[in-house]
Amino acid sequence: MKGIILAGGSGTRLYPITKGISKQLMPIYDKPMIYYPLSTLISAGVREILVITTPEDADAFRRLLGTGSDWGVMIDYAVQPKPEGLAQAFIIGEDFIGGDSVALVLGDNIFEGAGLTEILGEIRDVEGGAIFAYEVSDPQRYGVVAFDEHGTATSIEEKPAEPKSPYAVVGLYFYDNDVVDIAKTISPSERGELEITSVNEEYLRRGALRVHRLHRGDVWLDTGTIDSMSEASAYVEVIQKRTGTVIGSPEVAAYREGLISSAELASLGKAALKSGYGQYLIEAARD
Question: For the Nucleotidyl transferase domain, which residue ranges apply (predicted)?
Answer without folding.
Answer: 2-236
